[in-house]
Structures are given as C-alpha cells and as structure tokens.
TrEMBL record:
Belongs to the carbon-nitrogen hydrolase superfamily. Nitrilase family. This is Carbon-nitrogen hydrolase family protein. The keyword Hydrolase applies. InterPro entries: C-N_Hydrolase, C-N_Hydrolase_sf, Nitrilases_CHs. PANTHER family: CN HYDROLASE DOMAIN-CONTAINING PROTEIN (PTHR46044:SF1), NITRILASE (PTHR46044). Keywords: Hydrolase. CDD domains: nitrilases_CHs. One of its GO terms (molecular function) is hydrolase activity.
Length: 365
C-alpha cells in the first residue's frame, strides 16, 4: 500500500500531544473518564493528534508473576485484570469515540483488549485508533509480548499492521519491543507514515541494575529513545514516543501482589522526534501533556535526500514479504458465511483461500 495523499494531507503543520499521566490502575471506567478529560484538555490546546501510552486502559502489568506467586493474591489480581479489559467495539470504545469527536481530534490509546469472539477470553496488548469523527479507524495487537508479558497477553496475528489515512496524514504505530523488529518497521515504512506512534510502559535501562528494568531519566540508555529516533530518520516521519507514568501514590495499599510491583521506571520520558531523527521535544518526565508542532516541510526536505519507501528503497535488489495469519481479522465476517462465498472473502482480505477454509473449520461446531 502506497500513500495516495500529500504529506500531512496538504497541511503546513499539525500540533500533536502525548498524554503522560497515570491511569486509575485496573479500574477501566475511571481510567476512561480520565482519558476523556485529557482528550478535552489537549484539544483545548489545539492538539489534533492525541496519544496515550501502552496499556493505558487500564494499566500495564508492572507486577511479577511466577509459580511462586501467592495463589489468593494472584487470583484476585488476575480477576481484576480480566474484568477491566476492554472489548472493541463496546460501550467503552463508544465513550472514547465520543470524546474524540467532541474534541475534533484523532486519538491513539493503548489498552488491554479482550478478544470479542464467542468463548474466547485471550487478552491482547492493543493500540486503538479513533478518527476525529468519532469512528474507530482500527486497532493493532502486539505481535510478540516481551519476556514475562507472555504470561499476560496473547500474540497478535499481524493482519492489523497497517497505517491509516487521515485528514492530517498517514498514521501507523508499534508497541514497545515491536519498535526493535526491523521488518515490522519496514512494513509500515513501505505503507507510508507521516506520524509513527511508539508506546512504552516507561523509559528504562536494562543494563545498570540492581533490577532488570531501572529508570532512565536522561534518555541516554533507553533503547526506545534510540529506536524511535532511528525510525524517524529511516521513515522520514514524526515519531511520538509515549511512555507510561505511575507512582506509588497511584497504587492502593491493598493492591494484590503490591510487593512485586516495579514502577520506578514508569516516570514518563515521552518525546517527539523529527524526520531527521532530531528531537522536537526531548524526553520529558512527570505527570504532564507533551506538545509539539510538526511542520510538513521537515518531511519534504528529508524525502528530497533519502526517501526510504521511494527512490532509496531499491526494490529491484531487496523486497519485504508480508505473511499475516489473519484468523482474527476474517473470523467475524465468515462466521455466518456459506462456503461458496469464501473465495470472495479471501480476495477481499488478500489472504489465501486455504487460510479462510482453515478458520471456518476451526469455528465449525
């Protein structure tokens, strides 16, 4: 897929905002209320693209899990996590969509998403995209949860690795460690991005100890900062790096397994990088909203030198193959479909008929 619109859709500039504040931890309703309030606040400051961090609704799993976990505390915690995960679509998404429409802004927000298929209760680490008209543009499920995250989240199928055309330009995004997956980034670059959304649970260092993840207050060691600046340089896009923020005061005293929480690195650290890989806004800590004005000229002059999806890509020498397994994507539309129509859906979603038939067989009673 190639971009069909002008850079920033013909706009001279776009003002963006990263909301860096604590969720109401594992309280979906109150967190959505807080998100809606911050959407309105950012819009009052003329932001047209408003971004929240990883799993903002309703909190990143900062706790530790293992076979040694106290069973009573673990059960209570996992029940809260289950009950405060979000369905897409649902009344929860409608509230966020209404806030986006009222603010006349595009919203990208991280959430813990429950699979909506009947009888399936897998939870995903998801980015939800909402257009300024209050309609869902789409979602992206993290394709590979990192390290101990695999005990919490399922794997996305990759069919949602797309960028979205909007009236301020094309918008794509990746979640935390996905920004180190070179081929995923290349796939989004090929589609065209004016804005790349990169979300993280905080700004951390992985080498200094004593804990595996420790706070990086300068951005000097945080690989997320390095990878997002590299993506800005390679893609010629503006990169909004949205980092999580939460403090001890945001966690109730009776929170199950509180003794295992590691939130010291969730101090924020959000930043905005320009297409040359230089910072428009340097890593910023604290409870705040980070703003930046992104001029189209910055993309235009860089594309004149290196256009990574154009004259500098050399597809005659190297090319990227994309192999999604879009079972989740097509399951909803084929649930009530006769087998004679399967070829039409295979063509529509650009997948093989064999994959579609496999999904039908899995869903058969």
């Amino acid at each position: 897929m190639k971009p069909t619109q002008k850079i920033l859709n013909g706009r001279e500039s776009v003002k963006v905002a990263i909301v860096q504040t604590a969720p109401v931890f594992l309280d979906k309703d109150r967190t959505i209320n807080k998100a809606c309030e911050n959407i309105a606040l950012a819009a009052k400051n003329n932001a047209e693209l408003i971004v929240f961090g990883e799993a903002f609704v309703a909190g990143y799993p900062y706790w530790g899990e293992g076979w040694e976990s106290p069973v009573d505390s673990w059960m209570e915690l996992r029940t809260r996590f289950f009950d405060n995960s979000m369905l897409i679509p649902s009344e929860d998404t409608e509230r966020l969509c209404e806030a986006a429409a009222k603010a006349n802004a595009i919203v990208v927000i991280g959430c813990n998403e429950m699979d909506s298929r009947p009888g399936v209760y897998t939870i995903y680490n998801t980015l939800l995209y909402i257009n300024r008209d209050g309609k869902v543009l789409g979602r992206h499920r993290k394709v590979m949860p990192t390290f101990v995250e695999r005990a919490v989240w399922g794997w996305g199928d990759g069919s949602d690795l797309i960028s979205f055309q909007t009236d301020i330009g094309r918008i794509g995004g990746l979640i935390c460690g996905e920004n180190l997956m070179t081929l995923l980034r290349a796939h989004l670059i090929q589609q065209g991005e004016d804005f790349h959304i990169a979300v993280f649970p905080g700004a951390f260092a992985l080498h200094c100890g004593p804990k595996l993840e420790e706070a990086d207050l300068t951005g000097e060691f945080f690989w997320g900062n390095a990878s997002t600046r590299a993506h800005a340089l390679e893609s010629g896009s503006f990169v909004l790096s949205a980092c999580g923020y939460i403090t001890e005061d945001d966690i109730s005293e009776d929170f199950p397994m509180k003794q295992t929480l590691n939130i010291d690195y969730a101090h924020g650290g959000s930043s905005v990088s320009a297409p040359l890989g230089i910072p428009l806004v340097k890593p910023t800590s604290g409870d705040t909203i980070v703003y930046a004005v992104c001029p189209a000229q910055m993309i235009k002059v860089w594309k004149a030198i290196i256009d990574a999806s154009g004259h500098y890509s050399r597809p005659d020498i190297v090319s990227l193959s994309f192999h999604p397994k879009p079972y989740q994507k097509i399951a909803e539309v084929i649930e009530k479909t006769q087998r004679g129509e399967l070829e039409r859906y295979a063509d529509r979603y650009e997948v093989s008929l064999k994959d579609v038939e496999a999904v039908v067989d899995q869903m058969a009673p």
